[in-house]
What we know:
With 68 residues, the chain is mostly helical.
Amino acid sequence: xxxxxxxxxxxxxxxxxxxxxxxxxxxxxxxxxxxxxxxxxxxxxxxxxxxxxxxxxxxxxxxxxxxx
Length: 68
């Protein structure tokens, strides 16, 4: 996991999403930020709602981990 101090302060599921986004994104780091697509790719067996995924993406964006 990244040593990003702000990332360490986020909830565990958001930290897990940060790791999974690295695998989901393309070689340049791009990915479709549609919560349904992210949920299917990163959490296929979890019952997270699109709103939960959107919130986690927003948290990662707010700390500068990714840009939406």
